[in-house]
Design goal:
four-stranded antiparallel sheet, single chain, alpha+beta, 6 strands
């Protein structure tokens, strides 16, 4: 399968509601990218003390939000590659974080 065919299969398989990020075809690779918009989402971690009824709200860092989106989506993408028997034919770069975005290359 070539890069164009893979890109088409990814777009067919995943709706914008299923993934946090999006796919972009760029030359001979595909980029998955997620951009976090602070204005649209408030992320908080809720901690409950075991020995009391106290609940604590802790804000989550941008990096943690980006990595959570990455781990969620990469799991779905890798499972899809397994389903279509393409796991051994493609590689993923390490994630790159820049301010409010995270991306990887599929090549």
């Amino acid at each position: 399968m070539n890069i164009n065919e893979l890109f088409e299969k990814l777009e067919e398989r995943f709706s914008s509601d299923e993934l946090s990020g999006e796919f972009i075809k760029h030359n001979n690779h595909i980029v998955w990218k997620y951009v976090y918009d602070k204005n649209n989402d408030d992320y908080y971690r809720i901690d409950i003390e075991d020995d009391s009824d106290e609940i604590f709200f802790e804000s989550v860092s941008n990096e943690e939000i980006l990595l959570n989106a990455y781990y969620k989506d990469i799991d779905l993408i890798e499972n899809f590659f397994n389903e279509i028997n393409e796991s051994n034919n493609w590689s993923f770069s390490d994630p790159t974080i820049k301010k409010n975005s995270i991306s990887i290359k599929i090549f």
